[in-house]
Amino acid sequence: MALRAFTKKGIRSGFTRVLNSVPPRPAAQSFFSSSLEDAVKELTPASVRCISEFSFSSVSGLAHHKVQVVLPLTRCFHASSELWARRTNNELVHENSSNKKIPKKGKFVKRIRTEPPVEAPYVPPKLKRTTKSLVDKTIDIFEGMTIIELAKRAGESISTLQDILVNVGEKVDSEFDPLSIDIAELVAMEVGINVRRLHSNEGAEILPRPAVVTVMGHVDHGKTSLLDALRQTSVAAKEAGGITQHLGAFVVGMQSGASITFLDTPGHAAFSAMRARGAAVTDIVVLVVAADDGVMPQTLEAMAHAKAANVSIVVAINKCDKPAAEPERVKLQLASEGLLLEEMGGDVQVVQVSAIKKTGLDSLEEALLLQAEMMDLKARIDGPAQAYVVEARLDRGRGPLATAIVKAGTLVCGQHVVVGSEWGRIRAIRDMVGKLTEKATPTMPVEIEGLKGLPMAGDDIIVVESEERARMLSEGRKKKFEKDRLRKISEGATETLEPSDEVSKRVEMPIIVKADVQGTVQAVTDALRTLNSPQVFVNVVHVGVGPISQSDVELAKACGACIVGFNVKGPSSSIGLAASQASIKKLAV
Ligand code: GDP
């Protein structure tokens, strides 16, 4: 470095002074007097090439060395005369500014802070990774696990968990004592961890069970029509003279005595929403493809969802009554999308149907039964029930009602249950015909009454031993749910604030969603959220079941939201008037 400074700068400054006949500055003087000879000895061939055309005359005994310069050779150091002029000026400025080194532009300079930043407040470092990983962590819990096992899975110390146990009023003498699964969940929630309940099938009665089927496919390909047609053949329709209502699920009975349970909300939005909440109730997906339209984007999406959930597919080529129907083309398209159809050597059955003409429905039901048989579906029949909500609604007289499908065990009237973050004591169980029944067995859709609040589609239903336990678990879940919600909001806020100006220009669109049943509310909300983009942020501020009410209008007024009503009766004239006065946009779908 010293050498380079010497060759490039030292010589140049010496050169400048000789040219201008200015006596050398002190710094240059010391340089000239002491090190020139030594430095010349150390010159590299490259630098020598640069200065070879200078002539040095060193007179021994003299106080300094004299450098003679040949004028035209300045080109050795500078490509152009402007650059030369600029560099010379810069150097003069540098030297005049109290000997401070000014870094050259574009070069990285390590700044050493000498004074504390007085005005900047201390901002604690964000423990983003740790917090996130903890909240997103899910552990498996089971009945009878010890504190040691729980501590190991949760990554917490035994003493921390013991303190929490004391706080929730549970007396545990030793860390080897078995914990009930509910207490394990409470403790895990206290430390902010999600749980997955494992149920043992040991010593239980395992019996074959009917399949649960969901209908998916592209919009307008006839999912709803097919479900309607199938519902007409359902047990409920037969008993009620063809009159049925949308309750979230229905059962189709076959002559052989076997049955199939159909989930009533078509589309993969509802399917994924249920799955996201841990409710993997579907065994088989009926993929509806219109014979006159073929494979479309949502057909592929439905296929992807089914594959991701590891659920079998049975294809229903619908609208086969149409003259433009080309079922063979649809089959080829599906095969080219990687679906291994039975007639092409694979295992995916294809049935041609017409939902409108009600043809091919028997074949579809038989194909589903065959698929279920091949899957050898079985479930634990005895023991406490493990069930999921597929639909929920508010009834004026009966309060919150939830349509549930039992996955394992038996749900019995009078039991205390925790449903999502709600709880209650089952006052009544009704089957899909509306008949009161004492208990519900696997895959039997039932309507339960007696909950304190309205649960959501996909919520799990667990049976607990007492009212106190139910209250405690419900409170714990609500607390955790709220904590997670706030965390998501704050994460969303930082994400929105952090990036460039473009994000701050994102337009927020507050929306209130009202629909006839809980499942639809969720499906509509999910569909609206898919509209989120870098330009628009769909903020669903409130969702609810039932007609648009005065309080919805008030809320919309307060936050400038528009109201989306799906499958609900139009609001009364007074509410409509209030909404128009407040310039609230209403959208009835
Ligand atoms: P979804 O959006 O998939 O639920 O489709 P829909 O069930 O709402 O049906 C969309 C349209 O296709 C409606 O106008 C139905 O009448 C019509 N449609 C459904 N199935 C059939 C069918 O088998 N044949 C004919 N010709 N039309 C059908």
From TrEMBL:
Keywords: GTP-binding, Initiation factor, Mitochondrion, Nucleotide-binding, Protein biosynthesis, Transit peptide. The keyword Nucleus does not apply. InterPro entries: EF-G-like_DII, IF2_II, P-loop_NTPase, Small_GTP-bd, T_Tr_GTP-bd_dom, TF_IF2_bacterial-like, TIF_IF2, TIF_IF2_dom3. The keyword Transit peptide applies. This is Translation initiation factor IF-2, mitochondrial. NCBIfam families: IF-2 (TIGR00487), small_GTP (TIGR00231). It holds the Pfam family EF-G_D2. It is found in: Mitochondrion.
